[in-house]
Design a protein that fits this description.
Length: 333
């Protein structure tokens, strides 16, 4: 004779089933949380970088000054709207076309030329790159929307200096020291300097909101020149500040893609053949290689780095029985 189930037995069975479902739900919730933490990236991520390259391009959100008190053997300014010398025989010059004026100054003595600093207007794009000549670097500044309100800058000269300009071609004697003032052109300005002493280290950090490491290379073609944009990275180290101790090494030619929220070029160093960038920034995107592989740390990596794997597991193992106990108490009443 089949024994009839008592109502109490049915209630216990229903409770056991509910507990099993609740335990499974808690386990799934914990697993989903861990999976989500491993997939969700830290944004913005704090990074610091030391990159050696042959060229760097960046944008400045506010007006600043680059290359203050740079000692040079040769300075060439292209695209200036006005040149105001202060020596006999070299009259002030004014650009007649939108291309501006080209002026070259070259000295033989040890401390003849000093670049007072290149003003960078707010929103301007700047490119600094080495050239084929040793110790020679080119700075190209593109204003946005125009260069009309940009203050001029000066090159201080001493003694005899060879000058090639629209209104003067010869040797100008600056005596114990006189300045030559340059004004920005309409849209852009290029300054090329041959360093007198290497390395040159920028004295003040620059606030930036965009950064690229690339170079434009033009290949000769009988029909039309071809231009390619290649990585300018020689070597580098990226540190993820949100995950202490984690570093990413950049080999020569590695593509580096940064989507900056804000950044600071803490130091820009120019030496014989390349430049070195010391960067501190917060980035919404950080990728390397031609596949744009994301290098942003995950929330799980950050949690792991700050708490340690053992503490993370201990926390999960402690939370699980607490949630299970609360669930059991709720269903058993």
């Amino acid at each position: 004779m089949r024994r009839r189930r008592r109502p109490q037995d049915d209630a216990r069975e229903r409770t056991r089933r509910r507990l099993r479902v609740a335990a499974l739900a808690v386990a799934l919730a914990v697993s989903a949380a861990a999976l989500t933490a491993s997939l969700v990236k830290v944004r913005p991520a704090r990074i610091s970088a030391l990159v050696r390259a042959t060229g760097v391009a960046f944008r400045v959100p506010r007006a600043q000054v680059l290359a203050v008190d740079l000692a040079a053997r040769r300075v060439t300014v292209s695209g200036a709207s006005h040149v105001l010398p202060s020596v006999p025989g070299w009259a002030p010059e004014h650009a007649e076309t939108a291309n501006g004026l080209n002026t070259s100054m070259e000295a033989d003595s040890g401390d003849a030329l000093t670049l007072g600093g290149i003003p960078l207007p707010a929103g301007s794009s700047v490119r600094v790159e080495s050239t084929a000549e040793a110790r020679t670097f080119r700075v190209h500044v593109t204003c946005a929307p125009s260069c009309d309100s940009v203050p001029g800058f000066k090159v201080d000269a001493r003694g005899p200096v060879a000058v090639v300009s629209a209104g003067f071609d010869g040797t100008a004697d600056f005596g114990s020291g006189r300045p030559v003032w340059f004004s920005y052109g309409t849209k852009a300005l290029t300054v090329e300097v041959e360093l007198l002493v290497v390395p040159f280290e920028s004295a003040e950090p620059l606030d930036i909101d965009a950064l690229r490491f690339d170079r434009r290379t033009v290949y000769a073609d009988p029909v039309a020149p071809r231009e390619r944009i290649l990585s300018s990275v020689r070597a580098g180290t990226i540190r993820l500040e949100d995950v202490p101790g984690k570093e990413i090494q950049l080999p020569r030619g590695e593509e580096l893609h940064l989507d900056l929220r804000a950044g600071s070029l803490r130091q820009l160093t120019l030496d014989s053949a390349a430049l070195e960038v010391n960067l501190l920034a917060s980035a919404d995107g950080f990728a390397t290689g031609t596949t744009h592989r994301s290098r942003l740390p995950s929330q799980l990596e950050r949690l792991h780095s700050h708490l340690g794997l053992h503490l993370v597991l201990a926390t999960v193992l402690a939370v699980f029985p607490i949630l299970f106990g609360l669930t059991r108490w709720w269903f058993e009443g």
